[in-house]
Write a structure and sequence with these properties.
Helix 1 packs parallel to helix 2. It is built from six helices and twelve strands. Strand 4, helix 2 and strand 5 form a beta-alpha-beta unit. It is α/β, with parallel strands linked by helices.
Amino acid sequence: MRSTGSVVAVVPARAGSKGIPGKNLRPVAGRSLVRRAVEAALASARIDTVVVSTDGDAIAAEAVAAGARVVRRPAELAGDEASSESALLHVLDELARSGEEPDVVVFLQATSPFIDPADLDAAVTRVRDGHADAVFAAAPSHAFLWRIADDGTASAVNHDAAVRPRRQDREPEFRETGAFYAFRTDGFRQHRHRFHGRVELVVVDPRGAVDVDDPADLALASALAPQLDQHPSPRAATPPRATAPNGAP
């Protein structure tokens, strides 16, 4: 399949969720998590198409209303054991049926409600310009990490426990937030993993590095929204269409 030179954003959004039932449709400051992800991608200047991969009718309807295309995910790729990579590869295969092979894939997680479109643009630019094969969102951290052994003793992981430098004297480390990943399609198809080749990161605002996994995370996101929301204005999108697993509309 010949590359179209385009950039596609994919938002995997299963209907099932154990931590929060119907999680992807839960609202944060009046907008569902899946809508927030779609609108962040649509507000990016470097993303051409936004696709939501889902097995749920309500999520599909919300995605289309937000301006995304929908690829229906088959049941075997929608269970708890299904990987994100399998959903992304399925979307790429469905796009390929209609002759579409993007140059770059941007994988967004709806559970990250504060994705900055400018950060998406920075990640895509690094990949499109050939500086990196894969770029992901990361927040700086100065945390002292410890590991507990089988016998219950604690040992330092990323520092010398006998030396306690001040925060300003320590080089930061970076925590993968899970908000987004951008990577070359050809490399992803070859390796079948989001991390391949030269990997770089985009440093994002740690205040918004919230991953909604349980009700407490949802409450935290709702509390932070008035300060962190940028209210992006998504560009006018072409009428979205849903795609069935067999490629038929």
